Amino acid sequence: PRPAVIVHTAGPGETLDSIAALYGANADRVATANGMLRDLPVRAGQTIYVPTAPGVIHVVATGETLGTIAAAYGAGPAAIAEANGIDSGSLSAGLHGCALAEVRWKSDRP
């Protein structure tokens, strides 16, 4: 199955529109997922999160747990952990993912 969030490293001359098109994603959702305006330039080497599944992007904040995230979205912590291939002890600040129907996490930090 296709991941719910693809982590893309932008190349020279790429735009949010061209990156979204590459993955068949919606450019407005890509802009929102990255906290950018759609018409702003993308820097070569910039990490771009491309949401490809329904849901919202959630950036895990310091102190959040699977339980608090699950409660915020009306989901079960075990379902989020299973869908993301993580256990409750591996959640760390900075993880990005989708947090509704299909939940996948990708991290841009070690």
Task: Tell me what you see in this structure.
With 110 residues, this protein is an alpha+beta fold. 28% of the residues lie in helices and 18% in strands. It has 4 helices and 5 strands; from the N terminus they run E-H-H-E-E-H-H-E-E. The protein has a 3-stranded antiparallel beta sheet with strand order 3-4-5, with no helix packed on it. It has a two-stranded antiparallel sheet with strand order 1-2. A hairpin with a 6-residue loop joins strand 4 and strand 5. Helix 1 packs across helix 2 and helix 3 crosses helix 4. The longest helix is centred in the N-terminal third of the chain and has 8 residues. It is elongated and about 40 Å long. It starts with a strand and ends with a strand.
Number of strands: 5
Number of helices: 4
**What are the low-pLDDT stretches, counting only 5+ consecutive residues below 50?**
98-110
Helical fraction equals 25-40%
Class per helix and strand makeup: alpha+beta
Mean pLDDT: 77
Multimer state:
single chain
- Overall shape: it is elongated
The major sheet is characterized as: 3 strands, antiparallel
Q: In whole angstroms, how far apart are the ends?
A: 24 Å
Strand content: 15-25%
Gist?
This protein has 110 residues and is an alpha+beta fold. The protein has helices at 16-23, 27-33, 66-73, 77-84; strands spanning 5-9, 47-51, 57-59, 95-98, 105-107.
Spell out the key features of this protein.
110 residues; alpha+beta; three-stranded antiparallel sheet; two-stranded antiparallel ribbon; elongated; disordered C terminus
